[in-house]
Amino acid sequence: MLSNVDEAERIYLFVQHLGRRLREADALAGLTAARYSAMASLRFHGSTNIGELAADERVKAPSMTRLVRDMERDGLVRRCPDPDDGRGVLIVLTARGAALFDRVRAAKVTLVADYLATLPEAVQQAAAAAFRALEELAEPSEAAVP
Predict the structure, then answer these.
(1) Is the distance from CB of 75 to CB of 94 less than 8 angstroms?
(2) Which whole number is the average pLDDT over 100-129?
(3) What burial letters (b/e) apply to 80-107, b meaning 16+ CB within 10 Å?
(4) Mean pLDDT, to the nearest integer, of 52-68?
(5) How far apart are CA 70 and CA 76, in angstroms?
(6) 8 in helix, strand or coil?
(7) Domain ranges within the chain, ordered by starting residue
(8) CATH number attached to the domain at 4-139
(9) How far apart are CA 91 and CA 47, in angstroms?
């Protein structure tokens, strides 16, 4: 029987290796992991300012400013006035940025779905149950955050 540490290491390695494969889809679309992640934040949480986007992405504001500037240059995001703050600026995903994000995300989901489809039904159900049990680890609920 494997120890919890052995199982934890297997899960860790799985996440690392699958993450590498999924980042290949980013690279094929000309995206870095940082760009894809920032676009995901904007796609799922809506427009925000640089400071909030930096906090969401766990980077410093100057780093996010550079990332946004480069994404703006490439037509993936745009800046617009913040209606709640006359001096503020919001970062908004453009239609081009949203379409690119959606296409890359769909490719990643398809990669996983195609693999899962090759597994026996019992294994698919076991994998689904395991990932339901691990969801809290990836995105802790507000109650679990100290």
Answers:
(1) yes
(2) 95
(3) eeeeeeeeeebbbbbeebbebbeebbee
(4) 95
(5) 9
(6) helix
(7) 4-139
(8) 1.10.10.10
(9) 5
